[in-house]
Amino acid sequence: MDNLTKLTTEMYNPKSANLDQMSIKEILTLMNEEDTLIPKAIKQILPEIEKTVEAVCDSISSGGRLFYTGAGTSGRIGLLDAVECPPTFSTKADLVQAVLAGGNRAVMVAVEGAEDDEQLAEVEMKERGLTSKDVVIGIAASGRTPFVKGALDYANSLGATTVSLTSNANAEISKQVNIALEVETGPEILTGSTRLKAATAHKMILNMISTASMVRLGKVYRNLMVDVHASNYKLKERAKKIVCEATGADYETAETVLEETSFSVKPAIVMLLTHVTYKEALDLLDGAGGFVRHAVNQTSQKETM
């Protein structure tokens, strides 16, 4: 039987022994001090995060997908990162997915017993059509959630790349994966409440994985969000600003070119930097694998020949 009390994330934090007697300022100060430990803990596992990003890039480049799976807070964190990828990077809706114990209804309400059901995880992953090309990141602060274990077991049976993300060293789920991300943030100020430091660390790591992967996959030019999906007024204004930043064009010029590209930022930038037509810009991007810098450099090289 599991002994949860031995897990670091379940241990008593002596710094907050008098939490219920602290003033608001004292509580906030302590929380802030504890939160400063998070980036230091993440720094210790940067090599493993790098391997994960490399695996995600290889997977997506080969037609695979990225899956986050977890229960409760862990599942919701995975969902938060997954749903931000389409508007930020114009990815297809199924490229980065979150599989929560209890399904989507578990986002708002806890589903009793779902996190303890390993078989349910296999059913959920089968419904997503998991293949050997995919990457599955199992998220569990404790490192022993049955639903996550089940998802990783099924992924392993198919030959998919598996990654564990946990807040305890030598975690159970780390024994069954290709890459183990064990970020030790220590006991919480509210004993066992892993929605605090542990969850914050996991969110930061998922930010790193998805962002670095998308940069390496050509979704970024310089430090600009050139694959943004401009689906509303705010994002259309952001698209105009991005084009201005990338090309030096004024607002009106950027707006005119973006209207021609249906607010697709990448071809707009290539058009302005290389003085080509919309169709030619699309051809250049296609030949450059979607990388704006490569597309622009192709034109420069042709001009010098």
UniProtKB/TrEMBL annotation:
<protein>
    <recommendedName>
        <fullName>N-acetylmuramic acid 6-phosphate etherase</fullName>
        <ecNumber>4.2.1.126</ecNumber>
    </recommendedName>
</protein>
<feature type="active site" description="Proton donor">
    <location>
        <position position="84"/>
    </location>
</feature>
<dbReference type="InterPro" id="IPR005486">
    <property type="entry name" value="Glucokinase_regulatory_CS"/>
</dbReference>
<comment type="similarity">
    <text>Belongs to the GCKR-like family. MurNAc-6-P etherase subfamily.</text>
</comment>
<comment type="pathway">
    <text>Amino-sugar metabolism; N-acetylmuramate degradation.</text>
</comment>
<comment type="function">
    <text>Specifically catalyzes the cleavage of the D-lactyl ether substituent of MurNAc 6-phosphate, producing GlcNAc 6-phosphate and D-lactate.</text>
</comment>
<dbReference type="GO" id="GO:0016829">
    <property type="term" value="F:lyase activity"/>
</dbReference>
<keyword id="KW-0456">Lyase</keyword>
<dbReference type="InterPro" id="IPR046348">
    <property type="entry name" value="SIS_dom_sf"/>
</dbReference>
<comment type="subunit">
    <text>Homodimer.</text>
</comment>
<dbReference type="InterPro" id="IPR005488">
    <property type="entry name" value="Etherase_MurQ"/>
</dbReference>
<dbReference type="InterPro" id="IPR040190">
    <property type="entry name" value="MURQ/GCKR"/>
</dbReference>
<feature type="domain" description="SIS">
    <location>
        <begin position="56"/>
        <end position="219"/>
    </location>
</feature>
<dbReference type="InterPro" id="IPR000408">
    <property type="entry name" value="Reg_chr_condens"/>
</dbReference>
<feature type="active site">
    <location>
        <position position="115"/>
    </location>
</feature>
<dbReference type="InterPro" id="IPR001347">
    <property type="entry name" value="SIS_dom"/>
</dbReference>
<keyword id="KW-0119">Carbohydrate metabolism</keyword>
<dbReference type="Pfam" id="PF22645">
    <property type="entry name" value="GKRP_SIS_N"/>
</dbReference>
